[in-house]
Amino acid sequence: MANAADLYSVHEDHTWVTFSVSHAGWANARGMFRNVTGEINFDKEDVANSSVAVTLDAASLDTNSEQRDRDMAGPDFLNSVEFPQITFESTRIEKTGDKMGVVYGDMTMVGVTREIALDVIWNAEFPLPWDQSTVKTGFSATGQIDGTDFGLNSLVDFGLGPVIDIAIDLEAIRQD
């Protein structure tokens, strides 16, 4: 009998979607998106049968500077008024080792969709110690994108990137 994938909802309060980008070589500028939602269908027996769909609120960008956040959310960069969401939907998943894989998917940002790849580690899954009926699973992922592939050419004008390193730590709650 084939195992079905379990459905999980991203636990927003325990999910960090972060990035870093070179600032003219002086240092790496860092930030995160505070509002993250999504679902994961996870088949532990055959990860190729799994899928991921995540949405970031573009205006929830936090770079530790209110002025920079406003600039980055503005029309020269993320244009969060016209494009309020950044989305990722997996297209395929390859297992590369014990608890490791690559998730390929379509990322849409500022109206441009490109395929990206994320190296993923499945960290653990178990019930909450204080609530055995709530089961959590967790993943860590890393990857890179080129901001100019998404039309973010203003990054280069400001001495940023264009390569953006992505790091994700995500917890999700199994839906029974």
Q: Mean of residue pLDDT?
A: 95
End-to-end CA span: 20 Å
Name the beta content range. over 45%
Low-confidence stretches are: none
Biggest sheet strand order reads 1-3-4-6-7-8-9-10
User: What's the total number of strands?
Assistant: 10
| Largest β-sheet summary | 8 strands, antiparallel, barrel
Measured on Cα atoms, how large is the radius of gyration? 17 Å
**Overall form:** globular
Order of helices and strands: EEEEEHEEEEHE
Q: How many DSSP helices?
A: 2
Instruction: Output the structural class.
Output: mainly beta
Determine the fraction of residues in helical runs and give it as a percent range.
Answer: under 10%
Description:
- This protein is mainly β.
- Helix content is 7%, strand content 64%.
- It has two helices and ten strands.
- The chain has an eight-stranded antiparallel beta barrel with strand order 1-3-4-6-7-8-9-10.
- β3 and β4 form a beta hairpin.
- The protein is globular.
- It starts with 5 loop residues before the first strand and ends with a strand.
Give the secondary structure arrangement, pairings included.
Elements: E1 6-23, E2 27-33, E3 36-42, E4 51-57, E5 61-62, H1 66-73, E6 85-97, E7 100-109, E8 112-128, E9 131-146, H2 154-157, E10 160-175
Antiparallel strand pairs: 1-2, 1-3, 1-10, 2-5, 3-4, 4-6, 6-7, 7-8, 8-9, 9-10
